[in-house]
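Course assignment 3, question 2. Fill in each field.
Student: A.L.
Task: Predict the tertiary structure for the chain below.
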Amino acid sequence: MTVSRRMARAAVGRLPLAVADVLRRPAPPGGPGVLRRPLLRALREGGIPRAVTTFRLPDNPDLAFVAEDSLVLAQLYWYGEEGWEPELLPWWRALCRLSQEVLELGANVGYFTVQAQRAAPGVRHVAVEPHPVSVRLCRANLALNGGGSVRLIAAAAVAEPGVASVRLHVPADQLAAPTVAFLPVDTELPPGMARDVRTTIEVPAVDVRPLLATADLVKLDVEGQEHTLLAAGLDQLRERRPTVVVEVLPGTGRLRALLAGLCRDDGYRCSVATRERLVPLDPERLPEVRLKQEYGTQDLVLRPGELPSLDASA
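Answer field:
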C-alpha cells in the first residue's frame, strides 16, 4: 500500500459519521459537482470510516451493504449507484426483469446480484464467485437486502469438466475483497492488471457448461477468462440463446473474435451499454474498437435475433 493511501485511510477511518453523511449526500441539481468530485475521489481512496458497519446508498437508500475492505464497497459508499458501472446498471435491471434465470459469473461482493434481486425478485439467480472474502461479503449483502433466493456458488467457473480446484492469483495492491483475482492459465487479463502477484489461494472449481444450460441471461466479469468460458459453452449458448452481458477489456483478441462469431454465425446483435441507450455495434468493429475511449464503458450486451427494445426506466 502506498504512503498516500495509508494516509488517506488513516484520515477517513477517523471521520465522524455525521460529517461523512453530509459529504456523501448527493449534490442538488446545479450544485458544486465540479468541486465535489475530486473531494469524493480523495475520500474514496481512504475507504469507509471505521465506525460504519453497514450503509445505504446515498442515491438509493432502499439498498444496504456491509462496510468492509473493498474498492467496490468504498465506491458505493461515497458515490452510490454512480460509483460502479452506472452505464450498465439500468440495462442490467431491465434485462433481469425480462429473464427467467440469471447466471452471474464473477459476482464479487454482490452489487449486481443485489440489484438483480431488487429489480426482479421472482427470477431464479445463480451467482458464482471464487474469492472467499468476496463470497462472504456477497452473502452478507444479499442477506441485508432480502436476496436469500440467490444460489451462491463459492467456486471458480472453469471450462474443463472434472476439475476439483484451481489456483486463484491476487495482485499485491488488492484489498481484502479484491476487484482483480484471476486464473493465470489461458488468461486475457491485461498485463498491467496481473502484475505483482504475491498471493495465490486454492479455490473450488465448477464446470460452466451445466450452468449455461438453463440460463437465459448471462453476465461475465471473470478477469480474463471470458473467452474460455464462452468457448466451452458454445453448444449451450446456441441451444439456449441467452442474452450475454460481458466486460470486454483492451487486448482481449480471442474474446472479441468469439463475440464477433456469435453475431456473424449465430444471429446475435451486439450493443454497447451507454447511459442513454444501447448503441448498436457492428461486429466487424469488435477486434479493434476502443470501448472505454469511444463510449465510456467496456460492457457489451449481446441479444439473440430481433428482440423488443429495452426500457431502462421501468
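Instructor remarks: The first strand starts at residue 54 and ends at 57. The chain has two domains: 3-83, 89-304.
Grade: pending
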